[in-house]
Amino acid sequence: MKFRAVMNDGINIKEFHNVISTFSRMQKNLIINVQPSKLILQIESEAYDGQYLWCEIDASLRDGFFSEYIMDGIDSEHNQIYMTCQAASFLRALSYVRNNPVDYIKLKLIKTHMPCLAVEMSATISNDQDVLTPKIQHAIPVTVVPRSEWNQYEIPHEVEYDLSIAMPTAKSLRTLLDKKKNLAPTVTLYATLNDELSLVVETEVVTVASHYRNLKCVPARKPTGHEAQHDQLTNLSEASCRVDTKKLAALFETINFYDMIMTANLRHEQALNIRFDMRQNAFVNYILPATNFE
């Protein structure tokens, strides 16, 4: 097995740090799935309960997120690598990036006395007399997941949704959900083809609704073939999903990406998907199942 990836774009490096920072706050274990054309980072969360959080980075373009990307999986038939590590350890290895510019970050799978993900970065430090380029190196212990256990980490790439609506700013939602999470355990999101998004919490005493208008909303379910296309597209003018308020609020408390476009995809009364599209063909996906608890 072999894996080596290099990032040398300053914003991409910051973005990568932000992804790891977000995931480390959501869960302690991080799964790294290395594929020939993409790198997937996901948290080892309550997948059995329908909750998923992952980041997918396109690695097929040399002028994209990675300037160099080389991998060789376990065999030709299963050309992938799955490994797990402590998200906090990965974040510590990248901690220098938070407040300092670096020239590059290199990730490499190595084996000393145990498998490790080596993280190397180079910084340029200038003063009146010298220009220094010190290298910072870390080795994060990883567990390489055997092929027989890969199915434990499968994520739902193909999910049909009914309506897809653009979302307001993360700052606006962060403030709103911070208030709503103390009112009720669940919040219901409503999207309509009138380009409106509403967040509603209900208690025995009061119902509190917040409305956003002029957000583009379109049918999200895609036809699967030429026949019966209209049957495959949703005929709903409104879709709603009731989810755990604290889980949704926790996501927006940690999200901090550059140039992101947020979209909410709703499968009526079944699931909510929030997608954060970042620059250079990278995105974060979060799926929350509908909940019925009071």
Automatic annotation (TrEMBL):
<dbReference type="GO" id="GO:0044778">
    <property type="term" value="P:meiotic DNA integrity checkpoint signaling"/>
</dbReference>
<dbReference type="GO" id="GO:0035861">
    <property type="term" value="C:site of double-strand break"/>
</dbReference>
<comment type="similarity">
    <text>Belongs to the HUS1 family.</text>
</comment>
<dbReference type="GO" id="GO:0005730">
    <property type="term" value="C:nucleolus"/>
</dbReference>
<dbReference type="Pfam" id="PF04005">
    <property type="entry name" value="Hus1"/>
</dbReference>
<dbReference type="GO" id="GO:0000723">
    <property type="term" value="P:telomere maintenance"/>
</dbReference>
<dbReference type="GO" id="GO:0030896">
    <property type="term" value="C:checkpoint clamp complex"/>
</dbReference>
<dbReference type="GO" id="GO:0000724">
    <property type="term" value="P:double-strand break repair via homologous recombination"/>
</dbReference>
<dbReference type="InterPro" id="IPR007150">
    <property type="entry name" value="HUS1/Mec3"/>
</dbReference>
<dbReference type="InterPro" id="IPR016580">
    <property type="entry name" value="HUS1"/>
</dbReference>
<protein>
    <recommendedName>
        <fullName>Checkpoint protein</fullName>
    </recommendedName>
</protein>
<dbReference type="GO" id="GO:0033314">
    <property type="term" value="P:mitotic DNA replication checkpoint signaling"/>
</dbReference>
<dbReference type="GO" id="GO:0006289">
    <property type="term" value="P:nucleotide-excision repair"/>
</dbReference>
<dbReference type="GO" id="GO:0031573">
    <property type="term" value="P:mitotic intra-S DNA damage checkpoint signaling"/>
</dbReference>
<keyword id="KW-0539">Nucleus</keyword>
